[in-house]
Amino acid sequence: MNRRLVTILLAAFVVAALCSVLVYRLVGMRIAAVKPQPSTRVVAAATDIKIGTVLSAPDLTTVQIMGTVPKTAILDAKNAIGRGVTSSLYAGEPILEDRLAPVGSGGGLAATIKDGMRAIAVRVDQVVGVAGFVTPGMHVDVLISGVPPTNGGGGGGGNNNTQVRTVLQNIEVLSAGTDIQKDAEGKPLQVQVVNLLVTPEQAQVMALASNETRIQLVLRNPLDTKVASVQGTAMTNLFLDQNAPASKPKLTGRVAPAKPKPETFTVTVINGSTKTESQFAAPGGKQ
Asked: Which residues cross the membrane (predicted)?
């Protein structure tokens, strides 16, 4: 074999070996520089859990989380057992403290009531309940309609004096009927009672309105949290012709005829360079 060819092959092998060693060391340094991320095992839902459910051991499992763990994550299942769920959980989802009711508060609707708030039941029908589309978690406005009381303490004027007012806005729906969930197909339920989340002051307004007036719920977009300035309206306003042109004022009483102007004639007198004119009433006229 040609000695020159052998020398070239040996040199190529040496260069390849040096490159391999260099690459190996660089990759090793990069791997050593990367610190392994710590993992933490947290409590999670073993199955889909509905709102209001009181957690038990079969409802819970654990999952491994890489990196930073949420501050409100539950690490020990003992801290979750016996507590009510305030919002629905799904299988494999880590359970956080703010998704559970406080210890000792139990489950059901009462566990979903926030501190300082109250739940008040409003009797509705298919129309008042927005045709059954009022479901837990949605927001509504509360309208009342009725005849305002007079100074004597009772309503007056009959249905012609009926008025409607918006008394509450952006009120959260806690439950619909006796269930705080949707039906098996995820559709809203036809219910007769809707529970609303209100403040103690708003609860007094609702209690008075439910006894003296008719209540109507108006569905709103949950992302729309603005409180609008709404003026009430009355039954008589519905029959006003908004597009009617302004009527001209009409005169009443007897209109006196205009007086005719008296007929006159002019007489011109020329006296030398002097010229004078005089007007006289026509015969039969009055000057």
From this structure: none
